[in-house]
Specification:
single chain; about 450 residues; Growth Hormone, Chain: A
């Protein structure tokens, strides 16, 4: 029997370095599993669908137009208030977040199976419709995943949680993307898409194990039409009342334009440079994933040592410069070493940014409106880049070539860097934070 004065037995986490301990706590580990399911849905209409369409001989302008299916992710803030307030029948008794987590997961699984059955060579409009459904279901899944993650994490865990979420997101996107390529080459695209729906399960299991997040602060239920209208716009109104809110929103809108333009066109570059499915799976997915893991680790260390503001600024610089590596690859031509270097640099920079920038966007949220505010912020973060990709990227590549196109994306990335520097100097990066980022 242990005496009252005896020291408690050391937990295995106590033996880890202090900087590593937050990564093995329950909430950050859950954030990683949530990220797996979030990344899988995105990959099914991202690089995986781009490769599939390119292999069917679809024109570049038509392929890049499919980037518009991502707009569901950019307009998810429109129905995000439903996730915050509407109670799902029967499932709702298990909690607002958990019930939506399970419901949205089932929607994504059904939509992905439907996308796999559509044939691009004979029914391209059906493929487009199926991709839109995957986008809507995946965006809905992301709304509740992000809200669940932010409410599950304590403020001190936001950096580690953002890093683990990025680990999970890339595991989900990379693993499902690689699995789809390998299975498609051997059994066809329908089998590939159907097998990948298993990646929706980790988030659903998190809801079972972790329960309803205790930090959730439910907004008051609307009592009538006018109250419903007020409740719908309350998340945006609360954010806009903060000092410098418009500047923050402009930063969120422009900081990822160059990065999004570059990433959504990479599979076209690889296809035109003659890389095989196996080469893409190994170098783009495999090497890129290892580089991302390294970037997330470094990003977590930077966040802990330097704080959020400096970590965000450095990550923005690295992500801007990383686009230049794709211009170099396009100029050099087919090279496995060149592809590994370009993908490695870009994923390393994205890993650092995934910790710092995601933690910053999470910290901007008010816990009363977590789902809606994060949906709005994350949507703004990529809407400009996705819209430009879907409407002009294919034409720009055909008219100016890959080298000049990726040089352009590098230049486009720098206004966001400069604006964030101004936000640091003016103090707006601090005063704009919401309750999710405050102790």
């Amino acid at each position: 029997m242990t005496s009252p004065g005896a020291a408690r037995p050391r937990d295995w986490r106590d033996r880890l370095p202090a900087g590593a301990r937050p990564y093995v706590e329950a909430a950050p580990l859950a954030a990683a599993l949530l990220g797996i399911s979030s990344g899988f849905g995105f990959a099914m209409i991202g690089a995986t669908l781009t490769t599939r369409l390119a292999q069917y001989g679809i024109r570049k302008s038509a392929v890049t137009a499919f980037a518009l299916t991502f707009l569901a992710y950019n307009f998810k803030w429109i129905w995000a208030p439903l996730v915050d307030t509407v109670r799902i029948p029967l499932l709702g008794r298990y909690g607002q977040r958990r019930s939506w987590l399970w419901f949205a997961g089932l929607l994504v699984m059904a939509a992905v199976v439907f996308l796999g059955t559509a044939d691009p060579s004979t029914a391209l409009p059906v493929v487009a419709a199926a991709a839109i459904l995957v986008g809507v279901a995946g965006a809905t899944n992301d709304i509740v995943i992000d809200a669940y993650r932010i409410e599950l994490l304590e403020p001190r865990q936001l950096g580690a949680g953002a890093g683990m979420h990025q680990y999970g997101w890339r595991v989900g996107a990379a693993s499902s993307g690689a699995l789809a390529l390998v299975l498609a080459a051997r059994y066809g695209w329908s089998t590939a898409y159907t097998a990948c729906v298993l990646f929706a399960l980790p988030a659903m299991l998190v809801g079972v194990v972790m329960g309803e997040p205790s930090r959730r602060i439910a907004p008051p239920p609307p009592g009538g039409l006018m109250q419903a209208v007020v409740a719908y716009f309350s998340p945006l109104a609360e954010f806009l009342r903060r000092k410098g809110a418009l500047v923050v929103l402009v930063f969120v809108l422009i900081h990822k334009i160059g990065d999004t333009l570059a990433n959504l066109t990479l599979r076209l570059l690889f296809e035109d440079l003659g890389f095989s499915n196996d080469e893409i799976a190994f170098y783009d997915v495999g090497v890129g994933f290892v580089a991302l893991l390294s970037g997330v680790f470094v990003g977590g260390a930077m966040y802990a040592a330097w704080g959020m503001k400096r970590a965000v600024f450095v990550s923005l610089l690295l992500m801007a410069v990383s686009n230049f590596s794709f211009a170099a690859l396009a100029a050099y031509g087919h090279s496995n070493l060149g592809m590994a270097a370009a993908i490695g640099f870009e994923n390393f920079a994205s890993g650092i940014g995934g910790v710092a920038v995601v933690a910053y966007l999470s910290a901007l949220c008010n816990l009363r409106f977590t789902a809606t505010q994060y949906a709005l912020l994350s949507a703004l973060a990529s809407i400009a880049g996705r819209f430009l990709t879907g409407t002009t990227a294919g034409g720009l590549i055909e008219s100016m070539g890959y080298v000049n196109f990726y040089l352009l994306t590098t230049l486009i990335a720098f206004p966001g860097v400069l604006l964030y520097w101004y936000m640091i100097r003016s103090g707006l990066a601090d005063v704009s934070l919401g309750t999710a980022g405050r102790e």
